[in-house]
Amino acid sequence: MNNQKPKYHQIIEAAVKVIAENGYHGSQVSKIAKEANVADGTIYLYFKNKEHILVSLFEEKMGEFIERIAKAIEGSDSASDQLYTLIEMHFRQLSSDYYLAIVTQLELRQSNISLRLQINQVLKPYLKVIDGIIQKGIDQHQFKEDLNMPLVRQMIFGTLDEIVTNWVMKEQKYTLVDMVPEIHRMLVSALASK
Amino acid sequence: MNNQKPKYHQIIEAAVKVIAENGYHGSQVSKIAKEANVADGTIYLYFKNKEHILVSLFEEKMGEFIERIAKAIEGSDSASDQLYTLIEMHFRQLSSDYYLAIVTQLELRQSNISLRLQINQVLKPYLKVIDGIIQKGIDQHQFKEDLNMPLVRQMIFGTLDEIVTNWVMKEQKYTLVDMVPEIHRMLVSALASK
Amino acid sequence: MNNQKPKYHQIIEAAVKVIAENGYHGSQVSKIAKEANVADGTIYLYFKNKEHILVSLFEEKMGEFIERIAKAIEGSDSASDQLYTLIEMHFRQLSSDYYLAIVTQLELRQSNISLRLQINQVLKPYLKVIDGIIQKGIDQHQFKEDLNMPLVRQMIFGTLDEIVTNWVMKEQKYTLVDMVPEIHRMLVSALASK
Amino acid sequence: MNNQKPKYHQIIEAAVKVIAENGYHGSQVSKIAKEANVADGTIYLYFKNKEHILVSLFEEKMGEFIERIAKAIEGSDSASDQLYTLIEMHFRQLSSDYYLAIVTQLELRQSNISLRLQINQVLKPYLKVIDGIIQKGIDQHQFKEDLNMPLVRQMIFGTLDEIVTNWVMKEQKYTLVDMVPEIHRMLVSALASK
DNA sequence: CATGAATGAGAATTCATTCAT
DNA sequence: CATGAATGAATTCTCATTCAT
């Protein structure tokens, strides 16, 4: 435990660990407080309620997640290369933080509709990044020009998400990043202008 | 557990309606019993526990769902045509039963891991159907021969699932079946041998 | 404990005892349930929430209290005699049920405003009875004809209530009913037409 | 505890305002501290605990209240006139400080028994003043000589208290002081020697 | 087979009070 | 003197499941 960290982050890290280890419904506030080495009441100095811990957790972690991807694709000029980078970063980041992968792929999906809607809001910037790549591909004539943007976005996100979820549920018996080239090839083929 | 008896189905239909209208966490056993016009205790003559109602619901509804798709694709010899039929049937069936779409795409996903694992078991035959189409495509040289089968399956299922979920969350503001040709085209392109 | 009694009354009697012995703030629902020999959850089959137990308690007990007084004064034709009966019955009933006296005079007054307003509603019929006596006294020319009815009612009720509260707080070191003649004499003098 | 310091009074005035506006149970220490423009911890430099704030509030306010009444009745030689002055001052003071009236008539009564007993102690000097008037009335042969002093005192105090409480609860829709002559007339009649 | 009254375990949140600075 | 971040004890209510009728 890093006591220099402001308690806000201490609590969020504790929440990730506790939820990954005990499941969404096994994660009482008191358990998170204990893991974070704070009193139960201290949680409520930083978060309005339990749901707010989870939204904040997702915001913090996905915020970084998305930012790193957005940063990384800035380097390439080609939509296809950008897509490759996005897939690789998506997989690499979740591979390197197994606790986070469990929490985002499995546990947080058990939350109520209200929380899920807030989570969807957090994901919006990621979807915008995907949209940007698609648009660039169209502009560059790498991708078909009459693509249905929402549909394509849902295909890309749905594919990546399903693959990561399967990997988490199979307890990561294989290396996720190894899948990147084939997925990239398939997705580019799906969108290609010819 | 007696599956021939009418009350068994009465309870399952009631569960679909109650969950669709009240959400997963708003669906108490007593509410389902009331909707089914039986006493609370009667539920437990037909189902071991609450979770068992939901698994059975999924088994019944997805069983039919899958069977109809399997039946429908028997008619075609081409893997590409079969994939088209699968996508169309997938969308058509969920479009025509909005309650069921809400329950399977949104509400049942809030259940605990144990129930989700059982749901995955129920989906296995559907994944087998998808695998069969892929294999046939490879055998017919329509699809690339070195496809990674699980990966392809996850792409297809992940794409369809994400698209339906978005449609349900957007309160079906557009016609799902209209999307079939483009999705089919993209998926076939992704898998195509050249 | 009388197990023939429907649980509703069982719980109310338990609440009176528990509150009298432990005070308003020391009376947890679980303590009341234990005293009533029912499970905690059973309370909520009969009462919407904890506050509702207390309102019902007051309704039941005060309902009987008022009814007995109303019945008793029917016997007399004279307003002065009726007032005597009212005072005597008021004191006699609270003297004979010390637990109830503690609860109504001390403990229930610690409740929040919402409950206090509901309690005031329950008392309204009692105030009507007092008003009836005053009116009769005026009609019979026993009492002054230009009395301010609300003011007189408040004087009578305030006097009786303060006297009973003092008696309860002094742990009933004297006999409440002995006070009746003097109080009656003073109140009648206060209202008398000459 | 330093009573000369300005913060002591600052806190008491803040407590009156906060309790009048938020009710007894809505008045957290932190809210009082904020209203008083001091830190939460500062409260505990001046008061042992929360209950002590309330007792002090009552002591300060009722101390002045009683003193003013005692002073005012010094001017009259007749018990009846003194009683008139007492009633008028009682009503006038509470009329002119609506916040204080709410706090003493409604909110502070929701406190626990311990606080109520301390409040009763504070009221003792007021009851002594009433007793003094009664005794003077007896000595002057204005009042009956065999009056039961405690009983009479409870009638007077109970009457005034009930009337003020009703006025506060009715949101002071009428002028309290207008009631003085009739109440005085009734009380004097009740006690009069003939 | 069917009923439905009764059970009782389990958890989020508030807030008076402390104490290191 | 003053601060205010941190503490942690304490309690109502829900709802899946049982079982006597």
From TrEMBL, chains A, B, C, D:
InterPro entries per UniProt: Homeodomain-like_sf, HTH-type_Tx_Regulator, HTH_TetR, Tet_transcr_reg_TetR-rel_C_sf, Tscrpt_reg_YsiA_C
Domain HTH tetR-type: 5-65
Native species: Oceanobacillus sojae
Domain of life: Bacteria
Protein name in the entry: Transcriptional regulator
UniProt cross-references to Gene3D superfamilies, sorted A to Z: Homeodomain-like, Tetracycline Repressor, domain 2
GO molecular function, a single term: DNA binding
Annotated region of DNA binding: 28-47
Keywords: DNA-binding, Repressor
KW Membrane (keyword) present: no
Pfam family name, one: TetR_N
